[in-house]
Structures are given as C-alpha cells and as structure tokens.
C-alpha cells in the first residue's frame, strides 16, 4: 500500500516538474536544450519508471487496503513525537537561541526515548550539558561560528 | 608514479594532521563498532569538524574515519555475531563461529591484520591507477562525460536497490533535487518556490546529513521498543570475558593465505571503484569468491581463518577503491567519496580529472593518509579493543539525541542559516520513507552531486553541436551507454544472488 503511495508521489512529482519547467525561459540563446530541458528529461524518466514500478508492485501482490489507525499510531508514535520536537526545536531556536534550545531538546528527547524504569536523570543532565556546551564552545572558539543567540543574550 | 605518494607524506607529516587523523580513525572504529551507527553517518558527522582545517588535513581526517569505520565493524561481528556496520555482514559468518569455538583473540587478530593489508593493497592499486584514469579522462569531451555520468548513476542504481527501477528512481530523485536553484548555464531560477535561500540550490551537505543520518535515526526511533538491547544482553558475557589477542599468530595466519588476501583485496578495490557499490557488497562477494576458490569450501561458516581474511580484507579494500573514481573523474564511488568531494568543494578545490595536475599535494595526501590511517587503525584496534567492545552497549536513548544534535550543528555550520535545518528535516523524512520502501539512498546522493555536472555537460555538448545522435555515434560515449545497458542486466542477476547469500547468512538488508 505505502509502496504504491510512493510511486504515486513520484508520478505527481514528475508531472509537477514538467509543468513548472514550461515556465523556465532564458533570453540567451542556449542551443537546443535551455534551462527547461534537463528538468523535462528527468521528469519524463521519473514518470516512466514510476509507472513501471507501480505496475510491478500491483502485479506482485494483492493490495490490501486494511488500515488500522491504532496500529499505525502505535508504530509511528515515537517517530512523530520526535519529529514534532525537532520542529519546535528549530522554530524556537531563532527566538530563544541555540544554547538553551539545544539543551532542552537533547534532554527532552533522551527523557522521551528512555524506558520509564531506567530514567537516570543525573546521567542525562551531565551528558546533555557536556555535548551541547562542548559543541557550542568548540565551534564558537575554533571556527568562530555565531550560533543564534536568542533574546536572552542579545 | 610514487612521487605523488612522497609528496603526500611530506604534506601530512605534521603533528596537527597526524593528531586529527588519529582522532578520525579512533572515531571511525568506535562508530563502526556500534550497531546502528553506519560508517557513512560517521563520515558525514565528521565533516563539519573539518571546516576549519586546511584541505589536506580535512581530507585526511575524513579518510581516517572511513578506514577506522571499515575495521570497527569487525569487533561486534566477531564477538557478538551482529555486524556493527553492513560492511561486516560476511565477517559474522566465520569470525563469530571462531570466537564461539574458543579463539576470540585469534579471530580478532586475523580480522585486524586482514583489514590492514586490505587497505594497504587497495592504496597501492589506487596510487597506480588513479593518475592513468585521470589522464584518460582528460580526453573525454562533454558527450563522453555525460554518458559516463549516466553510466555511473545506472550502475549505482542497479547495484544498490531491491530492484533496478527503484534504484533508478532514487537516482533521478537526486537529479531532481539538484535542479532546485539557479540553472548552471544561464542563471534562471528553478523550483525555488519563491524562497530566496533556495536560489543557490539545496545545499549538498544538508541532503547528505538528512538522508544518511537523520533518516537512519528515525529508523532507530521507530524500532526502539523492539530492540531494547535484549539480544545484546544475552551475549554480554562475551563482552566481559577476558582473552588474549594473538598479535603475531594472527599475522602469520593472515600472511599464510596470500592468494586469498590478494584476491579479496582486488575484489574490494574493484567493487569500491564501481560507483555505488560499497563495502556492504564487497565483503560478501569476497567471501563468496574465497569459498569458491577454496580447496575445502565445506569448512566455510564453521569458523576458519579463510573466511575472516576474505571478508575483512575485502571490505577494507573499498577504502582505496572508492577513491579511484573520486580522484580521477570527480565521480564518487560511494557515500564516503561523496563526502570527500564535498569537503574538497567546501575548501574551494574543484574535483575532476584536473585535480591531480592542479592539486597534486591534496591527491598525494589522500594516498598517504589511507596508509597512515591503516597503521593507526592497527594500533588503535590492538590497544583499545577491550574498551570498544564495552561501548557497543550505548543505548538508543543516548545515541539518538546526541547524533540528532550533532546533525543539527553540522548543518547549521555550513551556511549559518536556520532555514537549512528545515531542509535537513525534509531530506531526513524523504530518506526515511525511501528506505522504508526499499529505495536505495546512495543513487539519490550521487544524483544530487552529479546533477549539475551532468546537465552542464549535456548542454555544452548540444551547444557545440546540436546533433544529439553524437552521444550514440562517438565510440567512447557509445561504449558507456552499451555498458550501462549490460550492467543493468548483470545487476538484476547479481541482486538476486546477493539477496540469496544474505538470507542464508542471516543478513542485514541495509544498503550503504
């Protein structure tokens, strides 16, 4: 089922690429292939292969449309949670700054992923501070990188 | 021919470079030993640390990580029977039984020596071949170069995926990502969706970190409840057991099989040189060939030295092999080559056939650092083996957050832009979904890196002469196209064979 969705994604991608390429025009004379040429070739190739792939999948096995919401949630719960945490992390970085968000992110992901019975908070805190402060000071002093400072340090 | 090597030694024989090379090898060995942490991931994460270095030093460090990683998988493969990286799958076939038979020290010693000789032999082949191939490549016109790139992507696609279509689709997807940003010839913006930051294209390193590291972490997260180290625990007595490493005996046994060693190293080097086919294939092929060439094939799998020698020299030899095309053509043989190419580009060095002419110092230091890294690997493995085996037990809840944070830092460092972090996440998700449905990632990565080169050569060819039949009538160009077709047929058959071998060996389908 998911395999077919991926094939459909590729087909849609190729159609989108082809249609968007129609708008790529250059005033310069560029031979027979302009800025639109290469994307069009790729779009065509993706389209053909995705269709072949889809036919192959449909032939190979019977497609089951059974979709259990509970099973799906159970299987991907952790992935979606981490994903959400990541988005919040990156989004808040520009406001609160790199250091605070990184410490919070590392600690909370460790907290979330560890087993309930084995939460060793001192160990997690030490590791979090070691990695985030270590990376921060290493890169700011050695590469003179400016990490987003955030409102508290501006 | 060896003057490049001497020049390289002059370059890297400074305390700074040697220290960072040593740290690189150490990090590689540790990363290779941790199951779930691939060599590619280690190499990708090491790249940001080299931004501040000189090109020779940065490249040396990355090669150190790669050489170390290739041998690090041995530790877990031999002692626990689980490959620390996909490139050590065949090592489990004989090294683990040998350990169970009561010779852990011997198994490891043979493995380490074989890794060492594998790297060295491949380095010698690299030194001998790369300049010749580069000289040939200088004669290629845009037609040939375009066909060569198409050929490379085809082989990668054929060798790494579940099916050739999926491999090709992944490669084309990479080419599509490479289309984002300004057109390389006329500067027309394409697929930028109105974002100013996308005008320069999707940063290659971001795609690399996203697809190879973030996606891998998501896989770990998905399975984190199932894998809660229970299979490791049952084997933990092996971790705490005391044993001696027979240094000289291992060397003697390894050298008593010169034919096996040479054959496996040649296979490894050749597989490494073929774009896209990396150590995860070479170790199995080398093992298979050793079994076929042996006088007593029935003993394979029971814990004999031949199997360990073949798989470990086979996988380490890809380190040198992968560099052949990277140096000579600017076409990376695998993800490690892709990282080295991007490291060179970040330092302002243009890869391609002219690299040896324009930057002999860098090419030389690539040669020399493989050799020095092998020596360091030998030292680190023999001295530190007992410690590394304890690191294997790092639980996922520590590994995943730390690596995730390192990915974010590495991505941010490249351009100092927060918007790149969103691209990182999107690429990670793409990678995760692609792997889930058995699309290989290496073709996608090579598509991204080779896309601009393919397009420029195609269009340059058509500006010189609008006749598109020239791609099929110029002999070298035609032979690349014919080879691509032949290789597709070959790889369909080879894929079946490898998957059969992997299932009989209790394999791991991870592609690298």
Description:
The complex is a heterodimer of chains A (154) and B (512). Chain A is mainly alpha-helical. Chain A has 2 domains: 2-60; 69-142, no CATH class. Helices cover 71% and strands 0% of the residues of chain A. Chain A contains 5 helices and no strands. In chain A, α1 runs antiparallel to α2, α3 runs antiparallel to α4 (98-113) and α4 (98-113) runs antiparallel to α5 (121-142). Chain B is mainly α. Chain B has one domain (3-227, 247-504). In chain B, strands 1-2 form a two-stranded antiparallel sheet. In chain B, β1 and β2 (189-190) form a beta hairpin. In chain B, α2 (15-33) packs across α18 (360-391) and α3 packs across α9. The model of chain B is unreliable at 226-230 and 505-512 (pLDDT under 50). At the A-B interface, α1, α2, α3, α4 and α5 of A face α8, α9, α19, α20 and α21 of B.
Task: Write a short abstract of this structure.
The complex is a heterodimer of chains A (154) and B (512). Chain A is mostly helical.
Characteristics of this structure?
heterodimer; A: 154 residues; mainly alpha; 5 helices; B: 512 residues; two-stranded antiparallel ribbon; 23 helices; 2 strands; 74% helix; 1% strand; globular
Task: Give the SSE map.
The complex is a heterodimer of chains A (154) and B (512).
Chain A: H1 2-21, H2 37-60, H3 69-96, H4 98-113, H5 121-142
Helix pairs in contact in A: 1-2, 3-4, 4-5
Chain B: H1 3-12, H2 15-33, H3 39-46, H4 55-80, H5 91-100, H6 104-137, H7 142-160, H8 164-178, E1 181-182, E2 189-190, H9 204-222, H10 230-233, H11 236-240, H12 247-255, H13 258-273, H14 279-293, H15 305-329, H16 335-346, H17 355-358, H18 360-391, H19 396-415, H20 419-436, H21 442-464, H22 470-473, H23 475-504
Antiparallel strand pairs in B: 1-2
């Amino acid at each position: 089922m998911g395999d077919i969705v991926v094939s459909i994604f590729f087909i849609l991608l190729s159609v989108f690429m082809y249609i968007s390429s129609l708008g790529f025009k250059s005033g310069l004379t560029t031979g027979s292939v302009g800025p639109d040429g290469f994307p069009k070739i790729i779009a065509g190739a993706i389209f053909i292969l995705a269709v072949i792939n889809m036919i192959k999948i449909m032939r190979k096995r019977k497609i089951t449309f059974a979709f259990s919401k509970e099973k799906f949630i159970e299987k991907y719960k952790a992935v979606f949670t981490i994903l959400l945490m990541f988005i919040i992390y990156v989004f808040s970085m520009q406001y609160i700054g790199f250091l605070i968000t990184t410490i919070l992110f590392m600690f909370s992901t460790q907290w979330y992923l560890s087993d309930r019975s084995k939460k060793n908070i001192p160990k997690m805190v030490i590791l979090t501070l070691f990695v985030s402060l270590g990376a921060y000071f290493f890169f700011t002093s050695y590469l003179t990188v400016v990490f987003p400072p955030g409102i508290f340090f501006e | 021919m060896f003057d490049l090597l001497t020049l390289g030694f002059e370059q890297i024989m400074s305390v700074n470079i040697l220290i960072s090379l040593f740290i690189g090898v150490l990090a590689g060995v540790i990363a290779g030993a941790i199951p779930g942490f691939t060599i590619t991931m280690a190499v990708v994460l090491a790249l940001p640390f080299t931004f501040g270095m000189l090109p020779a030093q940065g490249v040396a460090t990355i090669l150190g990580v790669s050489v170390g990683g290739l041998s690090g998988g041995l530790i877990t493969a031999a002692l626990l029977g689980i490959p620390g990286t996909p490139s050590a799958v065949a090592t489990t076939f004989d090294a683990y039984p040998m350990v169970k038979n009561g010779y852990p020290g011997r198994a490891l010693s043979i493995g380490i020596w074989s890794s060492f000789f594998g790297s060295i032999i491949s380095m010698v082949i690299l030194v001998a071949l790369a300049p010749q191939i580069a000289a040939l490549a200088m004669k290629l016109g845009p037609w040939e170069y375009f066909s060569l790139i198409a050929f490379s992507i085809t082989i990668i696609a054929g060798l790494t995926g579940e099916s050739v279509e999926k491999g090709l689709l992944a490669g084309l997807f990479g080419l599509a990502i490479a289309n984002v940003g300004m057109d390389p010839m006329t500067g027309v913006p394409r697929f930028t969706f109105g974002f100013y930051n996308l005008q320069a294209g999707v940063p290659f390193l971001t795609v690399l970190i996203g697809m190879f590291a973030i996606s891998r972490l998501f896989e770990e997260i998905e399975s984190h409840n199932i894998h809660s180290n229970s299979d490791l625990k049952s084997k933990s007595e092996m971790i705490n057991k005391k044993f001696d490493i027979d240094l000289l005996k291992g060397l003697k046994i390894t050298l008593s099989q010169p034919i096996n060693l040479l054959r496996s190293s040649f296979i490894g080097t050749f597989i490494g040189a073929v774009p896209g086919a990396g150590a995860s294939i070479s170790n199995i092929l080398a093992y298979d060939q050793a079994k076929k060439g042996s006088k007593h094939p029935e003993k394979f799998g029971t814990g004999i030295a031949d199997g360990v020698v073949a798989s470990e020299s086979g996988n380490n030899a890809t380190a040198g092999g992968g560099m052949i095309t990277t140096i000579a053509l600017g076409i990376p043989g695998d993800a490690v080559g892709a990282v080295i190419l991007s490291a060179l580009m970040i330092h302002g060095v243009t890869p391609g056939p002219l690299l040896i002419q324009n930057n002999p110092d860098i090419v030389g230091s690539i040669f020399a650092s493989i050799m020095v890294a092998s020596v360091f690997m030998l030292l680190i493995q023999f001295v530190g083996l007992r410690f590394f085996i304890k690191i294997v037990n790092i639980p996922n809840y520590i590994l995943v957050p730390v690596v995730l944070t390192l990915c974010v830092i590495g991505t941010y460092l490249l351009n100092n832009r927060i918007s790149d972090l969103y691209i990182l996440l999107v690429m990670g998700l793409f990678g995760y979904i692609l792997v889930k449905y058995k699309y290989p990632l290496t073709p996608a990565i090579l598509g991204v890196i080779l896309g601009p080169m393919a397009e420029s050569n195609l269009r340059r060819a058509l500006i010189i002469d609008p006749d598109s039949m020239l791609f099929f009538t110029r002999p070298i160009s035609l032979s690349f196209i014919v080879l691509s077709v032949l290789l597709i047929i070959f790889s369909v058959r080879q894929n079946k064979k490898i998957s059969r071998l992997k299932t009989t060996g209790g394999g791991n389908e991870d592609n690298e």
